[in-house]
Specification:
Elements (H helix, E strand, L loop, with lengths): L7 E2 L2 E2 L12 H14 L7 H4 L3 H16 L5 H14 L3 H13 L4 H8 L9 H16 L4 H36 L16
Helix pairs in contact: 1-3, 3-8, 4-5, 4-7, 4-8, 7-8
């Protein structure tokens, strides 16, 4: 996999692709081993471009592992937040990977479809409504109002607020990496249409 060449897709030539084997340093190899030890798989998606900075990749992977496995939110709510971040950044790989996971975790296809279209979803659960308002306001206005903050605090407490920001921020960071690298979506996976902003 690490000998793969840079590819071109409808998104343009892929950048920051796999590091050729002859360019792998001991730091790269240690980062790959650490990833395999925790994830029990080869590096993929955003971790391929992140590997060009091995320490950043290891630390990003550790944060991601916590947010996926140990955060205050059950999978259905954390995946809901991830969809909001992916839509904000029109991040094709993130969307194509996480939409099926979100639906399996309980996010209704109608809700996900509205997010994909840039609309407020109908018939959200109270928890989804609170997180939608909080996360959407955060990415669109770079902050949250007192009213939105108070509702989110009441629903999820301080830990929930910090972790909603952390999930939004983490997947926004990965989206920026993936968009910069022009990483294509998962083959055959769902993609996003650009929004008029």
């Amino acid at each position: 996999m690490l000998d793969a060449v840079t590819t071109t897709s409808e998104y343009g030539p892929e950048r920051l692709g796999p590091i050729p084997a002859h360019r792998l340093t001991p730091e790269h190899r240690r980062a790959m081993e650490a990833f395999r030890a925790t994830r029990r798989m080869e590096i993929f998606g955003p971790f391929i471009p992140l590997l060009w900075s091995p320490e950043a990749m290891v630390r990003a992977a550790a944060l991601g592992e916590y947010l996926r496995e140990g955060s205050a939110f059950p999978p259905g709510l954390s995946e809901f937040i991830i969809l909001i971040a992916a839509r904000h950044w029109t991040q094709q790989y993130e969307w194509s990977l996480h939409l099926p996971i979100a639906v399996r975790a309980g996010v209704e296809p109608e809700v996900a479809g509205a997010i994909a279209e840039g609309r407020r979803p109908p018939r959200m659960s109270p928890e989804q409504e609170t997180l939608y308002d909080f996360c959407t306001e955060l990415v669109q206005t770079q902050g949250v109002s007192d009213a939105t903050y108070a509702r989110t605090l009441d629903a999820f407490g301080e830990k929930g607020i910090v972790e909603a920001v952390a999930i939004t921020g983490y997947y926004s960071m990965l989206a920026m990496v993936l968009n910069t690298a022009r990483t294509p979506p998962v083959p055959g996976g769902p993609t996003l249409q650009p929004l008029d902003r």
